[in-house]
Design a protein that fits this description.
The structure is a single chain. With 187 residues, the chain is of the alpha+beta class. It has two domains: 1-34; 45-185, no CATH class. The protein contains five helices and nine strands. It has a five-stranded antiparallel beta sheet, with no helix packed on it. Strands 2-3 form a two-stranded antiparallel sheet. Helix 2 runs antiparallel to helix 4. The longest helix is centred in the N-terminal third of the chain and has 32 residues, at 3-34. It is globular and about 80 Å long.
Length: 187
């Protein structure tokens, strides 16, 4: 190999390396721009709960205790978790009307490696909103960018969450009583 070929090879490898680093750093920047995503910690287990939040408080966990009306629970697969988090962390999942009833029937809890509940969301399909800890950045971004507009689930966001709930074979996943139920809008 002559010196010219070696220099071209070295320059090509150097250019490839620099471009690779640049593409990695742009991915990091994109993630930072999107902000924190729910639940914003490493979890070891995620469990969905079918419960009746109409009485005795509404959140799936209050004061460190699981709601006493749990009818059914299901540990979620990686695919189910990914689908749920995609819906919750998508700004397009928010932007419609809400009501103030808040009687949730779907709760999801994220547990750490020690089995301690570290994040949760309680969803009410009747009033088209949720209660979560921590707050969901995508919804907060919609609220901050459009303070006079609605912050409940969008039709697409609600459809995704209702489909998720139905896939678990839970008892109350919205329907005709829910605000702007997607099934009712199509007729």
């Amino acid at each position: 190999m002559n010196i010219f070929t070696k220099n071209i090879l070295w320059l090509s490898l150097s250019l490839f390396f620099v471009l690779s680093l640049n593409s990695c750093s742009s991915d990091i920047i994109k993630v930072k721009r999107q902000g924190k995503v729910f639940p914003n910690f490493e979890y070891s287990k995620v469990v969905a709960y079918d419960y009746d939040g109409s009485d005795q408080g509404s959140a799936i966990i209050e004061k460190g205790k699981l709601h006493n009306s749990v009818k059914k629970e299901q540990e979620l697969s990686k695919e189910q978790i990914a689908g749920l988090l995609d819906a919750l962390n998508d700004q397009g999942s928010y932007g419609e009307d809400i009501t103030r009833c808040f009687k949730p029937h779907l709760g999801v809890v994220f547990y750490d490696a020690q089995g301690k509940a570290k994040a949760q969301i309680s969803i009410c399909f009747l009033c088209n909103q949720h209660n979560s800890f921590p707050l969901i950045a995508a919804q907060e971004t919609v609220r901050n960018n459009h303070p006079k507009e609605f912050h409940g689930y969008s039709k697409e966001g609600k459809r995704k969450l209702m489909d998720f709930c139905k896939s678990l074979d839970f008892s109350n996943c919205g329907g005709s009583e829910a605000v702007s139920a997607p099934e009712d809008d199509e007729e």
